[in-house]
Amino acid sequence: MTTTPxxxxxxxxxxxxxxxxxxxVICGHVSPDGDxxxxxxxxxxxxxxxxxxxxxxxxxxxxxxxxxxxxxxxxEMVPAAQYDGFCDVFIGxxxxxxxxxxxxxxxxxxxxxxxxxxxxxxxQRMCDLAYVDPDSASASMLIWEIVKLxxxxxxxxxxxxxxxxxxxxTGGFRHQNSDAKAFEAASELVSYxxxxxxxxxxxxxxxxxxxxxxxxxxxxxxxVFADGLAAISWVKQGDFDRLGAIxxxxxxxxxxxxxLSGIRVACMLRxxxxxxxxxxxxxxxxxxxxxxxxxxxxxxxxxxxxxxDMPLEKAIETVRAxxxxxxx
Length: 328
Ligand code: 5GP
Ligand code: MN
Prior knowledge:
This protein folds into two domains: 11-204, inorganic pyrophosphatase (n-terminal core) (Alpha-Beta Complex); 209-326, Diaminopimelate Epimerase, Chain A, domain 1. The strands form two sheets. It has a six-stranded parallel beta sheet with strand order 3-2-1-4-5-6. The chain has a six-stranded mixed beta sheet with strand order 7-8-9-10-12-11. It has helices spanning 11-19, 34-49, 105-110, 139-150, 156-169, 180-190, 196-204, 209-221, 237-243, 253-258, 289-294, 312-327; strands spanning 23-27, 53-58, 78-79, 89-93, 113-118, 129-132, 223-225, 230-235, 265-272, 275-282, 298-299, 303-308. It has twelve helices and twelve strands. The chain is of the alpha/beta class. Residues 29, 31, 33, 96-97, 100, 120, 254, 279, 297-300, 303-307 line the site of guanosine-5'-monophosphate.
């Protein structure tokens, strides 16, 4: 594991700080995915088991993906804008920058102290204490290490949620980040007695009908370019309206584009709140995070995202040009 220069604390330092404080707000990022929620909830259950006052916040007041709605503790999460309680320690997980914590930035600013535990490289340190390891397949693997330091007997809910983070961020242990450490962590988590088949069915086979219909449109619109090395597709606001789809229904669409044989880079665009949200994936060593960052977004080398404030047609053209240049 290689941490970034922003790392200034160890897991032991963080566990010690958690042990000696009582009130926590645990926050993730906008459009929370399985690793974000899994990391938040794994820590939440551990702190609760220690008798701490822990609160998990959703950065935005939006429903999460159907496929993640089974996670234990999700029903206790509150939108950050509605959290008016105390915040002794702010803990940001799976989130590297202030922009990505949305409405929770107000909680971060009034916290007595703050901690970041993440696997996204960022130029700056968002919190007082930080542990950032971009080599970690999921943020939830890092959280699990802290949970083990905190609890002699980690609650099974923590193992369950940490596993959801790991299995989702590795795409079911298929992506480039699935290394030996990821399998070691998986093996350990499984040994706690979590029901793997149940998690897999929920996570990978519980799409809403609207999400599948969006995928049909996505596949229909795929354009292959850059000499066959890249593919792009998109969904429009009108598609969401017509199908009764919500934002979360669009999260898995990038995987359909990514699955195309022969391409190195996949891109999925969607109209959202009058802007265009983009997801990028690379299937080899190509670092597509440079493109996401050039648009003000970020993420990992093989999986990143961004938002463009321009019409969809212009966004398609702009992103295509950047991908062509990168692969050129
Ligand atoms: P997705 O395409 O699934 O939305 O995101 C892929 C990865 O990139 C995730 O790790 C996500 O946290 C990160 N990411 C997505 N959008 C943004 C963004 O606008 N800014 C930053 N910094 N990271 C992003
Ligand atoms: Mn993650």
